[in-house]
């Protein structure tokens, strides 16, 4: 591979700046919720941490559903006829899991946020499959892996902070 080809390949593996910035901004709701919860420890009678935590768990569930929507779009537009049915089944799983885990989170916030965070952290496994089949851009995993691991960890942390 020539130097020019190597530079072009590396550039192709680097996510576009808007995707990096917007992806990073997507972590803000969880960071803010954790900050509010930890800062509110001085006022245990405040209802704000619970409300913010509930909103943040809603956000995490929505992001998980959003990822399923991305996978549905990839399956619908880029997959072969042979690949499509399996990928469409995989694509609906995040919305179902998000709904169940969010629905149970009021009664079991630590368990549900932990499971929700783990599922989010594991979503790059599906992305990796899409990447291997060349159904996503070359930079996809370089964006998705750190964002999924960060959002998963923050979601798990929020659950423990809410107790």
Automatic annotation (TrEMBL):
Keyword Protein transport: no
Record-annotated membrane-spanning stretches: 20-40, 52-75, 87-104, 110-130, 142-162
Annotated keywords: Membrane, Transmembrane, Transmembrane helix
InterPro entries with a match to the protein in the record: DUF3429
Pfam families: DUF3429
Name of the protein this chain belongs to: DUF3429 domain-containing protein
Naturally occurring in which organism (per UniProt): Sphingomonas chungangi
């Amino acid at each position: 591979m020539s130097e020019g080809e190597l530079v072009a390949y590396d550039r192709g593996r680097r996510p576009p700046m808007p995707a990096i910035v917007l992806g990073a901004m997507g972590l803000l709701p969880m960071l803010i919720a954790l900050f509010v919860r930890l800062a509110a420890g001085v006022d245990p009678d405040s209802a704000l941490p619970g409300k913010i935590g509930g909103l943040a768990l809603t956000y995490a569930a929505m992001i998980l559903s959003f990822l399923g929507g991305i996978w549905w779009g990839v399956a619908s537009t880029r997959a072969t006829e042979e690949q499509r049915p399996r990928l469409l089944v995989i694509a609906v799983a995040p919305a179902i899991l998000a709904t169940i885990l969010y629905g149970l989170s009021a009664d079991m916030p630590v368990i549900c946020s932990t499971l929700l965070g783990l599922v989010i952290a594991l979503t790059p496994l599906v992305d990796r499959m899409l990447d291997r089949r060349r159904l996503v851009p070359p930079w996809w995993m370089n964006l998705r892996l750190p964002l999924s691991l960060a959002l998963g960890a923050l979601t798990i942390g929020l659950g423990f902070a809410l107790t």
